[in-house]
Amino acid sequence: MAGINIWALKKDQSIRHLLLLLVAQLGEGSFVVDDTTPCDERAIFLHHRQDRGIRAYIYTLGQADDRYGVHLEYPPTADAGNQLEVMENQRFEALVESLAVHFDIPFVEPLPGR
Q: Which of 38, 79, 90, 91 has its CA 20 to 30 A from that of 65?
């Protein structure tokens, strides 16, 4: 996420806060914020640091308080085409686990006080 000022993003406070927590747990540079693909202020696209075809669309739209929806996107393959995994109303901890696997992040830092 190097080079992106989270506070300058035209995103809802919930998304900016989420990005701060993700950097704290997954590590600086473990994913890339896509600040060019248009989407709602309560949503954001992230992608793998080396493969832009591996993306995650994360949103708070229509989710319960302190819950997230996520679409995990995989690069198309010849036999399966586009692949997408959708999860709704995920707790933060579950979201972090999903993103760590999706983005090939081997270690997740615990949040302070947890």
A: 38
DSSP bridge pairs for 69? 59
Contacts 24+ apart (CB under 8 A), 80-88: 88/63
Hey, CA dihedral for 7, 50, 42, 66, is it positive or negative? Answer: negative
Q: Is 110 a residue whose pLDDT tops 90? A: no
Name the amino acid, one letter, at 88.
E
CB 27: neighbour CB atoms within 10 A? 16
Please tell me the total number of residues recorded for the chain in this structure.
114
Domains of the chain by residue range: 7-102
Alpha helix ranges (H) inside 6-112: 13-26, 92-102
Place 79 in a pLDDT band, splitting at 50, 70 and 90.
confident
- Please list the alpha-helical segments (H only) found in the chain: 13-26, 92-102
Q: pTM for the complete prediction?
A: 0.90
With cut-offs at 50, 70 and 90, classify the pLDDT of residue 37: very high
